[in-house]
Every structure is written in structure tokens, then in C-alpha cells.
Amino acid sequence: MVQASIVLGWIGLIIYAIIFVTFQKMLKHKEHSLLHLLMAFMYSAWLPLPIVLYQLLDFEALLVGTIFGYAYLIIMILSMSLQTSHIIHILKQDESIEWEERAEWMMETLSGTTEGLANLLKSIWALFLAMAFWQIDQPIMAFSLLLFVLMGVYVLLLLIRSNTYKQINILKKIKGNPIVFNIENIIFFTILMVYLTIQ
Question: How deeply is 190 buried, as exposed, middle or buried, from its count of CB atoms within 10 A (0-12, 13-18, 19+)?
């Protein structure tokens, strides 16, 4: 199971690299739907990771984190799949103002809070992973994963900001940045895959 998970995990990272290299070209040719489909495949390739890490680290409390890890991956797969279907449907319609407004509303519904919540769940998973690595005397891995726990604070503030009717002044300065999220995501899974590979 570990070997298969390692292969799938690296396939997920290869898909991410393909997305990174072809991103501008896909946007230019309006292949937004294909982009999200590739991302759905990418997250699907990482599905075995929570259970494999739980088995390898042998830390009972990590079972709780594993549940959060699975919830994160499943939400992201569903979100990317729904966005894929929505985008291709919208692109095939007339480019009227009505359709553009509807498309924007649906994309915000399918991505904003949904992906924010998923990323918060990933931070909780990272917390349990950090605890597990600390327990087995691997402080470098533990401290590395704590950085992703801190990312959860940023995500939580973004969720509060985007889901409060009356804006909180102190949160108005906090902005979501897709580049930050993508870099954080690839570093997170690269760390996990490197650890699994060298075991």
C-alpha cells in the first residue's frame, strides 16, 4: 500500500507541475474546465496519504487528524469537479451579461468558502501530523508542519471576513491570495511525499 501511495502521490505532484507549466496557455485558450479537472485528478491521487501516514507514524491521536485530512481532500475533489462541470457549461453559453453574472456567482459559491473550509481542515490535519512527528522524535518534520498550522489562522480570518454581513474593520486588510495558497499546497504535499519516499 505504501509503494502504491508513493507512486500516486508523485503523480499528483507531476500533475501540479503540468498545471504550473501550462497554466497561462490554458487560460489563453479558455481551458478553465480542463484546469479544474486536472486539479481534481491531482487531489484524487493524494487520497491514500492520510491513512498511509497514520499507519506509518503509529500515533493513535493521528486517527482524528486522518479524518480531517480525508475531509479536506474529498471537499477539494468535489469542489474541483463541480467547478469543472460549471465552467464548461458556462463557456458553451452566449457570453451575455446575465450569464457572466450567473457564472461569477456560481464560481464564488463553489470555491470561496468551500475551499477555505477545506484548507482549514488541512491545517488541523497538519497539526495532528506535527504532533505525531514530534512523538517519534522527528522535530524537523514537526516544526515544518507547524507552519501549515499557522496558515490555518490566516484561512480562518479570511473565512470570517468573507462570511460576515457587517465587515470587521481589522479584517478588511486581510486579502486572499491564490498564489500563496498554491505555493503552500505544493510545499505541504512535497514535504509529505519526500518523507514517505525516503522511509
Answer: middle
Q: Which amino acid is at 77?
A: I
Question: Residue for cell digits 498550522?
Answer: 149
> In sequence order, what are the residues at sequence separation of 6 or more whose Cβ sits closer than 8 angstroms to the Cβ of residue 92?
none
pLDDT tens-place string over residues 170-184: 767 777 778 888 899
With b meaning 16 or more CB within 10 Å and e meaning fewer, what string describes 45-73?
Answer: bbbbbbebbbebbebeebeebbbbbbbbb
d(CA 148, CA 145): 5
Contact 8, 48 (CB under 8 A): yes
User: Amino acid letter at 161?
Assistant: R
Instruction: Give me the domain span that covers residue 111.
Output: 2-198
Which parts of the chain are beta strand (E)? none
- The structure's pTM equals 0.88
**How many Cα atoms within 13 Å fall on the side-chain side of residue 144?**
16
Q: Is the dihedral of CA 126, 41, 197, 64 positive or negative?
A: positive
